[in-house]
# Entry
Amino acid sequence: MQYFVNVILPIPLEKQFTYAITVEEAQVLSIGMRVAVPFGKSKVYTGLVLKVHNDPPEIYEAKPIHQILDDTFLVNETQLKHWQWIAEYYMCTLGEVFRSAVPSAFLLESETLVLLNKESEVDENDLKDDEFLVYEALQHQSMLRVHEVAAIIDRKNALPILNQLITKGVVILKEEIYEQYRPKLVRYVKLGKSYQSESALEALLNDLQRAPKQSQVILSLFQLEATSKKPIKVAELEKNSGASRAIIKTLVDKEILEEYFIRTDRVSYDGEGDTSNLKRLNEYQEEALLAIRQSFEKNKVALLHGVTSSGKTEVYVELIEECINAGKQALYLLPEIALTTQLIGRLQDYFGEKVSVFHSKYNIQERVEVYNNVLASKPKAQIVIGARSALFLPFANLGLIVVDEEHESSFKQFDPAPRYHARDSAIVLGNLHKANIVLGSATPSIESYHNALSNKYGYAQITRRFGNVLMPEMELVDIKEQHRKKRMKGHFSERLLLEITETLELGEQVILFQNRRGFAPILECDTCGHSPQCPNCDVSLTYHQYKKQLRCHYCSHHIALPESCQACGSPTLDTKGFGTEQVEQELKMLFPEVKVARMDLDTTRGKHAYAKIITSFEQQEVDVLVGTQMVTKGLDFRNVSLVGIMNADSLLNFPDYRAHERSFQLLTQVAGRAGRTQKRGKVIIQTYNPYHQILRQVTDGNFEGMFKEQLYEREQYKYPPHNKVIQITFKHKDYNRLNEATEWFAKGLRNIFASNVLGPEYPPVARIRNQYLKHVLLKIPAGQSLAKTKISIKRIEKSFNAIGSFRSVRVIYNVDHI
# Structure
């Protein structure tokens, strides 16, 4: 009987592929294991086994697999169900979910190797200079990789030369699969077997009298062995003896020392957790905890609505402790890596090494180790903290999911596919595992709050800050009036400067929020009005002063700062608008003695950059922290008593149906960083329109008012939570073809969905990386079947792709577009 496997390949193709396997392989293989399979003419991919069966494919002949890559499953069945839901709901392929869900080290790469063809006779005179260089190199090496060939012939593209060599029969190409993940091996040493007896040891020390440095190494080894019961690392011995690695290597070569390696995790925690450190919950937290438990009993998702600094984290910690005491795993999702930095320390204080961390700033090796620890249900991975990607870890026994700051748009993945929302996907994952789910926020999203009010979710509320600290005092400053009276110093109003001065004199700290990085968004010529634009995108270049360059924030194109206008040659260049860099510079001029730090995308690129900035601010080495929305999200600084919002209008005036909701959330969250201990904090909001409804609601803390207003507007204009929305984006480098294609697709949609189709319309930035973009928005009323709607859209796409000129237009689906 013949055996076959269906595999998922990490490529965006709708169908699974079937490969032939032997009877022996069929007995070994199970769902969730990886196999290396041939695809196309010479590619080799990692496939994930989805099914073992006896049905041959009807359309093509099944190729045999190359090799089995795992001894046991890498992806469990619950994960696969979750992936299938994501692929179906977010209108993408299982292959795209597979590529996104597992660390890339598990997706073995095929790399082309160049080998000498030993079966052919080579006439060296027939070879050109570059060809001869490659041929000569292969005389001395058994194989070369393509990038090594490029280096030998000093060309970027080596493929033409390789093609000529293949044609002449000089070389052959071979595809090699290599594993990207390498375990971390730590080097240890011990005394050689021949010197274990006392007499041999005495003789050795006598011999080494003429080599004092070697003798010192041996004595240090004895010292370390006496004080520590653990194996001795080479690095430790080197440090204690003051000797170089070369001396230790000499002793190893002489077999006086014996070296060995122990595999260790890259991510580890050395301290001891102590759950007795847990803060006692106050009566408001206890009430919220009781309400959450009651929701869990009814198998409902619980929404915890607690004002900023009300102690939501302590409530989560209580729930996590209950979960791990029951022998289950807990997942704690956060929207921003900056938040994980601060929370890791707090959770490790309580739970010690039971905490693992998973996010994109970790290198590939560290992510593989956390993945393997979760897969093996190790004690060190009972609690996982992470950004949205932690959702894809192979949990076997998940008991609790906490989604903190659930309103955050960072939980939505934009590019590449799957364009999933981590909050909604976490709820589905929790249901698959029958786990408890708690969503927490000081400013819940309209959708979640609406679900709580309609009794779909359970609801718990904490209305007071921990320790009964008062909510910060908020003040709106009219900067239009301040400009008119000439009371502005740069971008600082007189009122804000006075408050900053008083706060710093008291030895307290300040956070300043400006939601734009760089120095200024526009550089403009005062003579002719020309502003440098990005050649690849429809957007002006942002001036970054610290690098003296103009940079595009969409495609990273950059040029050096011009001395004069590129259009008219005039040297009168001026900046318009301002970003975090300019706020930082103005502060340093106004307060030369004050230590200022900046936290935005430019300063947090490194792996530990977040941690360094946050730690220095926590330890009060920095007086003022200037930042973009990174500083708004749930960070807990004990000594901040003033928050300044440089310009609230840039948030409000945005072409998006969520702009007012987001502004309320962002301003409330950033205000919540002030006065988190006994003293009441202060928030100064600078604006040109102090009478704006949202700003009034923020200063009054009127979440209910904002919610009712937004809900009414959304109902009128058919937006979530009353309607579902799917945004369809079209991409192509040809402007006219894109217009034709989008009109055709939109017409097809209108024939079925009539007035619920908006567009096609260009977005505010209509060209990115030389690709034009156009959007069509589809609104789906509550009574309409979402599944049938998607089938109709896919049917239109099939007809669309059958038209030759439209086939090159890329169609991107964004379900529950944010």
